[in-house]
Amino acid sequence: MSLTSIDLELDELLSDRERRNSFFRSITQDEIASQIRALRKARQLTQSAFADLAGMKQSAVSRIEQAHYAAWNLTTLFRAGEALNARWRIVLEPLEEAIKEYIPKAEDAYDEQLNGDAARAAARAARHPRELVGPAAAKLRDDDVRFNMGTAQ
User: Domains plus CATH for the chain?
Assistant: First the structure.
C-alpha cells in the first residue's frame, strides 16, 4: 500500500465525525500510555517499582501502559505523574488544528510521490512516523518505506 492510498483513507476517516472522534480518542489513549511507559523506562523503573511509588498494583501499571486501556481517571494520571516526578499538560485543541497535524504532512509526501521522488517520500515517512498513525498504519508505513527505498536505488 502506498502513502497515496493511506492519504485517501485518512481523508475519509477525518471527514466522518464518528470515525474522526474514535481516531482522536485512540491517538490520545496511545499517547498517554506511551508517555507513562517511556518516562517509567527513562527513570529506570520496573513496573513493580513504579507501582510501589504510585501506590498501585503492578497489574494496574501494566493496564495503564496499554494503548487500548481507557479507564484511567485524572486521579490515576496524577498519581502516575507524581510517582514519575512529572506533570501532565492537557491541551484542548480545536478540531481544525488537530486535523492539520495529519493532513498537510501527508499531502507533502503525496506530492513527492507524484513528482517521482520516492526516496524523499520514504525518507519523510521514516523521519515523521506520526504522519501515519495506529497499528495498521504503522505496518503499512514500514512496508511503504521499505518498498520506496528499494525502488529508489
Answer: 3-15+93-152 (no CATH), 17-83 (1.10.260.40)
